[in-house]
Amino acid sequence: MTAKDAQKLANSKNLDLVKIAPQAKPPVCRIMDYGKYKYELAKKEKEAKKNQKVITIKEIRLSPNIEKHDIEVKANQAIKFLKNGDKVKVTLRFRGRELSNISIGKKVIDEFKNLLSEISQVEKEAKLEGKQMIMVLTPKNL
């Protein structure tokens, strides 16, 4: 069908002539109500946005010379975050001369990881980035 005939047919039905595949030889067109089509697309997109779950990242800060009870308090806070479905970023910051004893910081992070091993899994292993050691934990799918 020629473009003029298709346009006349669309005008007679009070609809729009929309090119579906303009690169094809010959171009493929469809007669439809374009306003209704755009409305349906927006409605589907809004519905998809409503159903998706937003995952936030919560941060827990530790230091190499932290006491045992303080680690347990921070672990309890991390458990709350993980139960809510959030990821937890554990940051251990070295200050001054603490940077020369990275092994102490590694032990603290490992202890923290062991406290949360039942409820979480490690997404990103502990790694030294500048003056911080960073590890990311995600909730386990039970």
From TrEMBL:
UniProt protein name: Translation initiation factor IF-3
Coiled coil: none
Matches recorded under InterPro entries: T_IF-3_C_sf, T_IF-3_N_sf, Translation_initiation_fac3_CS, Translation_initiation_fac_3, Translation_initiation_fac_3_C, Translation_initiation_fac_3_N
Localisation per UniProt entry: Cytoplasm
Purpose: IF-3 binds to the 30S ribosomal subunit and shifts the equilibrium between 70S ribosomes and their 50S and 30S subunits in favor of the free subunits, thus enhancing the availability of 30S subunits on which protein synthesis initiation begins.
Alphabetical keyword list: Initiation factor, Protein biosynthesis
Protein family: Belongs to the IF-3 family.
